[in-house]
Amino acid sequence: MTQTLLIGVGAGLVSALLFGVLLKASALAIGLYLVAPLPILIVGLGWSHRAALAAVVAGCLALLLAVEPFMGMAFAAYVALPAWWLAYLTLLGRETASGLEWYPTGRLLGWIGATAGLSFVAMAVVSSPSFSSYEVQVRRLSQSIIDPRGGASTAGSEADKAGSNNAEPGQAVPEAGRSDTNDVTREEMADAFAKVIPALAAHGLAMLLTLYLWAAARIVAVSGRLLRPWPDLPSTKMPRACLVALAGAAILSLAPGYAGVLGVALIGAFTAVFALQGLAAFHDSSRGRPGRGFMLFAMYMVLFVTQGIALLALTLFGLADTALDRRRPKGPAAS
């Protein structure tokens, strides 16, 4: 047990180091930051959830004491606790009459969505305990995305004023109010985009958490330490309770303050996992069909060419698959 905990502590320190290099703000630092959850997931899946919990504590304390308290809390909210929780769920099992039954991958996928939404809001609360300061930060981010030129519009309006003052009699003057109209339009776009930022961020995080969990499980399986057998991923089916959770998130998104932000974030996260559910359903329903390889290749090519826009179709497919549960009868398990 002591050796397992020490391995967990070492993994936590490595994860904290990968997270902490984000302060360098370089391309390499961002790349290292993106793999920060992997050490915790690896020790959680290969040794035990207690080792992963030791990694959480060690990494948080290292950043809290060596860097600053904010970094320790951010690491816990956005990286460490989600990784530990998913490793814990993955290794859950119960004894049944037919043997040991492992935690279903469909429920695990649903929890990935919930974890991504909660992690985003936890990170937002850590960085901005006051909701008004959160609104200012998100709106500033939205404006920088909508209008990366910054003060170009202001400079343009000043130039328009100067031009009108210096115009000769009879000379055409630029249409008054045009720059103001453009500014209003940009402000409206920025406000609208700021409202969906939590959904976009949680959507991406849900995809990343799924990728991290799959990659960590593959690494541990290659080493022979994976504590559960490899599941049949195409047969993944989320429970209908996830549909209820998505509907509840839509209602919660209408609430004020961080409650509404949580609702928006959960909508984004659950649409991500429903897209993955649709992907699994496509793999499952194409089993045994002629030309299956070409069908899968074409689907992934469409996803790549459309830069993920086709995920909307997969999301709808996943929603329908969960609601109707009309998978065709299965024969022997296939890859």
Could you please describe the fold and organization of this structure?
By secondary structure, this protein is an all-alpha fold. The protein folds into two domains: 91 residues, no CATH class; 200 residues, no CATH class. It is 73% helix and 2% strand. The chain is built from 13 helices and two strands; from the N terminus they run H-H-H-H-H-E-E-H-H-H-H-H-H-H-H. It has a two-stranded antiparallel sheet with strand order 1-2. The longest helix has 46 residues.
Helices and strands, in order, run as HHHHHEEHHHHHHHH
Beta-strand portion reads: under 5%
Describe the biggest sheet? 2 strands, antiparallel
Strand order of the largest sheet: 1-2
The amount of helix comes to: over 70%
Low-confidence stretches: 151-164, 172-178, 328-335
Topology at a glance:
Layout: H1 2-20, H2 27-34, H3 37-46, H4 49-66, H5 69-90, E1 93-96, E2 99-102, H6 105-127, H7 131-146, H8 152-165, H9 178-223, H10 241-252, H11 257-285, H12 292-305, H13 311-324
Antiparallel strand pairs: 1-2
Give the tags.
two-stranded antiparallel ribbon, 2 strands, 335 residues, 13 helices, mainly alpha
In short:
With 335 residues, the chain is mostly helical. Helix content is 73%, strand content 2%.
